[in-house]
Inverse folding.
C-alpha cells in the first residue's frame, strides 16, 4: 500500500489533461499502458503562441502543411521559434492512439512526435511475438532532461486481470463522446461539446 490514499494521488500527479506525453514523464520513471486500436491517427503538428495572452496551442494537419496553410490556420497565433533561436520550430510528424493508462486508470491519448519512439513502436508491432499489438502492454520510460533525454519503450505481458476495467473505461469514454479525430480540428477528443 502506498503512502498516499488513492483519493489524494491526483493532487500531486503531473497531469496532461488526458494525454500521455513522453516529455512529461519524470526522469527515472516509467508509465505502463495498453494500446486500444491497431492503427494510430497520423498527422503533422506545429505549435503556436498567443502573444497577447501567453498561451500555446497545437495546430494539427492531416497532410504536411505549407507555410501559408499554417499561417491561415493559426489566425492570431504566432508560430513558435526554433530551439536554437533561429528560424521557426519545424512542422513535426506525429501519431496519436487511445490507450488505457494503468497509473491513472483512465483512457488517454498517447501522442508521439519523437521519431525514435514511433520507429520503436512500429518495429515491436512487426515482431511475430507481438503480432496482436492489442494483446500487449507497454512501459514507457524516460531518463535525462532537455537535449540529453532518452526514452525507452518496452513490450510486457498484458495485465489480463484488468480487462473488465479497461473495457468499462473505454465504454464510459465513448459514451461521453470520445473521438480522437477531433484532434485534427483543434477540438476536444474527450467530449463532443466545445
Amino acid at each position: 500500500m502506498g503512502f498516499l490514499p488513492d483519493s489524494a494521488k491526483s493532487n500531486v500527479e503531473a497531469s496532461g489533461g488526458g494525454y500521455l506525453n513522453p516529455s512529461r514523464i519524470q526522469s527515472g520513471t516509467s508509465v505502463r499502458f495498453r494500446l486500444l486500436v491497431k492503427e494510430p491517427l497520423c498527422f503533422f503538428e506545429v505549435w503556436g503562441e498567443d502573444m497577447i495572452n501567453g498561451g500555446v496551442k497545437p495546430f494539427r494537419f492531416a497532410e504536411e502543411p505549407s507555410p501559408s496553410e499554417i499561417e491561415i490556420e493559426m489566425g492570431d497565433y504566432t508560430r513558435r521559434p526554433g530551439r536554437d533561436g533561429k528560424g521557426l520550430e519545424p512542422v513535426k510528424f506525429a501519431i496519436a492512439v487511445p490507450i488505457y493508462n494503468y497509473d491513472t486508470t483512465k483512457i488517454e491519448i498517447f501522442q508521439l512526435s519523437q521519431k525514435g519512439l514511433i520507429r520503436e513502436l512500429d518495429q515491436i508491432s512487426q515482431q511475430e511475438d507481438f503480432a496482436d499489438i492489442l494483446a500487449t502492454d507497454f512501459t514507457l520510460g524516460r531518463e535525462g532532461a532537455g537535449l540529453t533525454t532518452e526514452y525507452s519503450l518496452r513490450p510486457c505481458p498484458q495485465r489480463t486481470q484488468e480487462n473488465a476495467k479497461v473495457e468499462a473505461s473505454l465504454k464510459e469514454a465513448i459514451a461521453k463522446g470520445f473521438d480522437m479525430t477531433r484532434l485534427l480540428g483543434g477540438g476536444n477528443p474527450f467530449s463532443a461539446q466545445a
Notes: The chain has one domain: 17-179.
